[in-house]
Here is the input.
Amino acid sequence: MKRNLRSIISDCKRAPYLVYLLLIGALCLHSMDFASAEPLDPDLVLYFDYEDFKGDTVLEKSGRGYDGAINGKVTQSKDGKFGSAAHFVLGSFLDLDGPNIKPDDIPTEGMSVVAWINVEAIADMAIFNARAADNTWLVHPEARGSGKYRWLNRSPGSTIFDIRAGDNKDNEWQHYAGTFSRAEGLAVLYINGKNVGEEKARVPTPIAGDWDQGARVGYNIDDNRPFAGLMDDLNVWKRGLTEEEVNIIMSEGVDAFLAVEAQGKLATTWGKLKASK
Here is the structure.
């Protein structure tokens, strides 16, 4: 009887400590959830690695929560450049709910659109598209039916640059990277890591500052230039990436690039990549 009573008393004494441990665990989990919601990089606006599809949604990985709502048929393929890719059936797209993109996340002082693409035909195909409230088409990263690629940004009422260069190829993985820095006044189009065309800014004004008429992956807002084929590792930045950064993202992927960037080892990594070619 004494042993049972002592056991009961001991359990009662331990109870507050157990509650305390449970509370600590709950707080840790809450902190982890909060931390996971932080952007991966202050300039990374959108990042679709196409590794996670959830019902009619493709999860966006920048930490900003701009998931893509599937319209039509966009399915996951295991034939990506880095794991899985998205397969877009002609006329299908991801809706990014452009009017609800935060103003601070809209690229105006610079922009880069980067992706691996494998198109099914030589035709006009939009990789990403956004349109401002005043009807400005602010960006056109495309594979073109002319046999070229296109990279364009606009200010309200003005074209900042319009590059059409490179050799569009179908049924073959190609790495597309369009970059623009307003501070430098220069836009560059890279295909497979190589500069295929550049243009100085025609006007000094910022890129149109809202996506209020919509933003999509794989289809223009006016239902033109549908993307058909595979797409992997789409990333959109609000600054102009350098040639070094484009090549690291192309070769190693966004996650590896961010890790290298955080360690301040970009120049060293770029040297190793060039040496290995």
In short: The first strand starts at residue 44 and ends at 48.
